[in-house]
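Step 1: inspect the first sequence and its tokens.
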Amino acid sequence: MTLRLSTVILPVDRWHEGGRAAWQRAEELGFHTGYTYDHLTWRSFRDRTWFGALPTLTAAATATERLRLGTLVTSPNFRHPVTLAKELMSLDDISGGRVTLGIGAGGNGFDATALGQEAWTPKERADRFGEFVPLLDRLLTEESVTQQGTFYSADGSRNIPGCVQRPRLPFAVAATGPRGLRLAARHGQAWVTTGDPKLYEEGTPEQSLAAIRGQVEKLGKACADIGRDVAELDKILLTGFTPEQNTVLRSLDAFVDFAGRHRELGFTEIVVHWPIPDSDFAADPAVFEKIATETLSQLG
């Protein structure tokens, strides 16, 4: 099974003081996709520099030629399908059709209350996600959309000329629960997981593999229920949130072993965090670049 290696570059550097250079270096190293988080701020970076995802990706589109670009992930927490669709269509045009939308239901982080609202319950997040994704799908594939929803509506919303990628740019749907997996099966071109969060701090790698295997099986059932072949979906693992945390970037051998075990579960893409000093994503740049350039040949 062919495996791709991608990276997620957090928007923590000023564009002219390291930001542009990171995206260009990611392309030089041969990464398949450069993603960024679509948050207003995030965890330990709340009091540090943090820029917006879509402007960053737009700048990256003009600074690169081959690297695919994407969010990992966008959520309804502070987005609306109508405005998001317009921005995504524009980004797809500027990049020449190199955009993937990673999208998830969101959580209880800073984004959840930044607009002054109460944090949504898990059920409400799922309800909103269930409306958000199908409407966004329509907005990116149809020239004019009118739809009245419980949470999200569109009134004669136009997206002309549409995406460069047809029928629209691909969705990579992050999900582990049954409702999210059904959305991935119906609307996704890819599925995203970070593993089982309950195992992050105290679980073992073996327990994590078993949990992720179970997620893959549930995705397969969700696809089978609608008559879709699960093999049609790419399967993306965002690293750093399994029990191994960031230790897999300590050596090429450690990462090759990790990547090989997850490739056996059916993953087609593994995403590593671009090194950030003095953070959970700190890594030796030389080892990181060796991983980027040698992993796939090591795996054969």
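Step 2: inspect the second sequence and its tokens, then contrast the two.
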Amino acid sequence: MRLSTVILPIDRWREGGRDKWRRAEELGFHAAYTYDHLSWRTFRDGPWFGAVPTLTAAATATERIRLGTLVTSPNFRHPVTLAKELISLDDVSGGRVTLGIGAGGTGFDATALGQEPWTPRQRADRFGEFVPLLDRLLTEETVSYEGDFYAAHEARGIPGCVQRPRLPFAVAATGPRGMRLAARYGQAWVTTGDPKLYENGTPEQSVHALRGQVERLAEACTEIGRAGTGPEKILLTGFTPEQDRPLDSLDAFVDFAGRHAELGFTELVLHWPIPDSGFAADQKTFERIAMEAPTQLD
């Protein structure tokens, strides 16, 4: 079981932003991710910086920790320009980048470019084209493509990623089409649990729902002959019925982590504490969990 963190891009780099990423590495986290949004929920009217520039700065401020997005989506991204940014970021980091990628949602990103929000089916259709094209752009030197939603004309991917054949994808998915994409293209799969259980569900119901998701991923892998070698399984915590209560103490977290390790999860991602927000937590307890919990989960 690996522990990682997600650092929301809300701090000016010289006023605490850089320090968080460096501290995440010092604490021994496997990876430090950030959200890839233009703005997000209750943070919309406050500072919010771009994911790729933030990760590029983090790459120069750290040496070992993996870096990535949780998650990038087609809401305001195009595969051609995103691929160029990812190749550059992977180079700057020395091959430490993981791309968390999902179909997108109905939040502020969905309309920021002036478009009407896409329906769930439209998001799934675009995602089904976005991921395979991005895979090609990151593994082939030249790509031409004409699809229903995206196009590329002799797009160059030289020199390619430091990581070969490309940087890993962590595909966020719960539905059947997304699960198939995760099975085919994902080096990892990401979930936040069942959103219907967040406010009124129980931890037991959440575990049951997550077990069902893991089983559906296994079925999707079996369909393409990937049984037994499926993606790593990542749980972005904070959105199950427990919310952030596992961060109340080391024992509470170890109990939470153990129950999810039994489901097959190989990485848990914890939100870096943000005072006076839904991600508020005691910083000292958070850091103790980062340093001590892994040895109790071996």
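Step 3: confirm your contrast with the notes below.
The CA atoms of residues 3 and 268 lie 5 Å apart. The chain has a mean pLDDT of 96.
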